[in-house]
Write a structure and sequence with these properties.
Order of helices and strands: HHEEEEEEHEEHHH
Shape: globular
CATH architecture: Sandwich
CATH superfamily: Jelly Rolls
CATH topology: Jelly Rolls
Number of helices: 6
Distance between the termini: 49 Å
Strand order of the largest sheet: 1-8-3-6
Helix content: 25-40%
Number of domains: 1
Number of strands: 8
Radius of gyration: 17 Å
Strand content: 25-35%
């Protein structure tokens, strides 16, 4: 259980939770082991509606481009995966492959287990969903910054390149 608690303590998704709330939600997570090169999520596959939090190792996020598959990010411990299906999006909206770089451990929270907290612990649900939104907002901010830098580079704006 300490792996679950330790991982939840470093994740932005649970940063607003008290120790008591953290211990309540920790019991809902499952630990999954992945070997180097193993695919965790792949576009087109039927995906469980789980929220994943990387506990140990690294997970490469890859997308299919015109020149083949390209790595766009590497998840570190505390980072999230599976957000689209967890919040109710269709698995057909998934465009990225998650692949273990080396041996990795992921925490997995099935949405149906999480939803059991709605009536009994609504503030935990609220705080976790706020944390998920902060995480997604951080991704969007990062992508916007990279897009602006690329645009500046291509059009030679601001004399930065």
């Amino acid at each position: 259980m300490s792996l679950v608690i330790d991982t939840l303590r470093i994740s932005t998704v649970t940063e607003e939770l008290t120790d008591t709330e953290l211990s309540i939600i920790a019991g809902l997570f499952e630990v999954q082991d992945y070997k180097a090169g193993e695919i965790i999520v792949h576009p087109g596959d039927v995906q469980p509606e789980n929220l994943y939090i990387l506990a140990h190792g690294e997970i490469k996020v890859k997308i299919q481009g015109s020149d083949g598959e390209a790595a766009i990010h590497v998840l570190k411990p505390g980072d999230l995966g599976g957000i689209i299906t967890f919040v109710g999006g269709a698995s057909s909206n998934i465009s990225a492959t998650l692949c273990a770089v080396g041996d990795a451990k992921m925490l997995s929270l099935p949405r149906v287990k999480f939803e059991t907290l709605i009536n009994s612990h609504p503030m935990i649900v609220y705080k976790v969903m706020r944390g998920a939104m902060r995480y997604v907002h951080g991704i969007v901010r990062s992508m916007n910054t990279k897009s602006a830098e690329l645009n500046s580079y291509i059009y030679r704006n601001s004399g930065g390149y």
